[in-house]
Amino acid sequence: MFSNNYIQRRTAPENERGCFLCHKPTTSVLVNEIPEADHFYACDVHLNDPGFATQDSNNLKEIESQNTRQKEFLELKAKWDSNQKKKDSDKPNKDKEGSEHASEAEVSVEPALQERKIKPLYHLNRGVYNLRVGTHRKAADQQRLQKMLSQPDLFPSVPTHKPSQNPKGSNGKKA
């Protein structure tokens, strides 16, 4: 039906809903990798529970490496800014064109770092996943049943002849 790979996303605080299991208000949403296949709200307590879901180890390593790269970038940026301030204080008659080139280089590095944010990837426990699949199957069955019941020719029509008359026009005599 759909894969057991869920990406964690956050909603705005005004859009928080109850957790799928404990009904506590939460802003964490697990969304299936397949667009519009499945989504549900899950609190952080359940996301950290190994009996509910486990985070993908490869994805966890990517997130950690991204965090270290981001920290290194911020440290280098702080050093760069302090060096630029020292240079600016040493040379008050600095050329305007040189400062424009430096700011352009700084701006071009930041979007490269922020272009790809890695979102946590979770795999649901077998029982929880089967519960989600069962819920979707039940909803699909309910939709099929409602569609079938809305058809006018589903049930036979009410007889239009009188009970004492034969509908085929014969008087009930056998030949």
Automatic annotation (TrEMBL):
InterPro entries: Vfa1. GO terms for biological process: vacuolar transport. Residues 76-111, 135-175 are annotated as: Disordered. GO terms for cellular component: endosome. Pfam families: Vfa1 (PF08432). Coiled coil: none annotated. Residues 76-104 have a biased composition (Basic and acidic residues). PANTHER family: VPS4-ASSOCIATED PROTEIN 1 (PTHR28218:SF1). This is VPS4-associated protein 1. It comes from Starmerella bacillaris (Yeast).
